[in-house]
Every structure is written in C-alpha cells, then in structure tokens.
Amino acid sequence: MLSVIVLAPSGADPAAGRVQEAVVRSLAALVGAAVADVVRDACIVGDPSPRLASVADHAGCALVEEADPGAGLRKAIAAVRGDRIFVLAAGYAPMSGFNDEMSDWALSAAPPAAALRAEPASLAQRLFPSWAPCVGVIAMRQDMTTVAADSPAALARKLGARTLVTRARRVV
Questions:
Q1: In this structure, what are the phi and psi dihedrals at residue 119, rounded to the nearest 5 degrees?
Q2: 85 φ, ψ (degrees, to nearest 5)
Q3: From CA 129, how far away is CA 50, in angstroms rounded?
Q4: What is the rounded distance in angstroms from the CA atom of residue 51 to the CA atom of residue 28?
Q5: Is the pTM of this model over 0.90?
Q6: Nearest residue to 37 (alpha-carbon basis) of 3, 5, 60
Q7: What is the Cβ-side half-sphere exposure of residue 34, based on CA atoms within 13 angstroms?
Q8: Which residues contact 15 (CB under 8 A, 6 or more apart)?
Q9: Are the C-beta atoms of residues 168 and 94 closer than 8 Å to each other?
Q10: Which residue did the predictor score with more confidence, 14 or 116?
Q11: Average pLDDT for the chain
Q12: How many beta carbons lie within 10 A of that of residue 77, not counting itself?
C-alpha cells in the first residue's frame, strides 16, 4: 500500500481558492485507490494556510505547513506511515489503470522508482512520453530520504525513475 503526499503549489495566493481546489481534486481522484487498498494514508504539504488546514481536517489527512517545498517534502516523508510513497503535484489526478499498475508495482520486492507524467499536450509528447511533465513519483521511503528535492520532477530525475504507462490528467 502507498502513502500519498500531495504537494500544494507554493507561492500561490491562498485567498484565491485555487490551492485548496487543486488539493481537493487530487485527493478526490485517489478515493478509488484507497477503496481498492492501494492507498493507505495521505499527507498534504503546502504554505501555512487556514484553508489548507481545513481541507486536511475534512479529508482526514496529515498536514505539513512549510513555506520551503523541499523542507516540507522531507517532513512529509518522515510523517507518512508507509514505506512506499507516492508524491503527487496538486491539480493532477491519475487516470484509469493507475490502481492496477500500482498494485503490480507494489508486489515487487524492491521496485524501482516510477514517474507519473501528465497526459501528452503535444504530438512530440505523444511520440516521446518522457517529454511530458512529471507530476508524480512513486518510490521506496529509503530511496526518497537519500535525495533532496522539492518537486516530483526533481525526485524522479534524481532517482532515475522509469515512466509509468498510466498518465495523469489536469483537474484544475
């Protein structure tokens, strides 16, 4: 089972409502994975905000309030319960097939890091899927704690993550 860390956009105006909407939509997309026993717990990382705290409270998630995304991610990795961690940028939702692909990934004894990329926005990204933006990464806790990163793309690059077949769609 995976522990999920949702990274709220940093530096956005929290009063605008876009930050919590992005987090809520990403968490909502993972409900099916939780029901299928793919996801065990979740943590939200973002700038200190009463609205984000309210979202975490209503969703039953842990909350790490940190202005520095790198420090927040390190704290969240330490806070989640599982050894297999899925870091997702808020505003994206894994598409169909994610639960099956994660179940297969989780059955591996020592699975390699895997990158979740956004659905292709251009012909070049359709032809070369690794060119699509990386919006999520799945890896073992011990691998994530050895690298310093502040985004899923930086984590995937540093861990040498392979690209998943499943894509993520933009939900905000």
A1: -60, 145
A2: -120, 135
A3: 38
A4: 17
A5: yes
A6: 3
A7: 14
A8: none
A9: yes
A10: 116
A11: 91
A12: 20
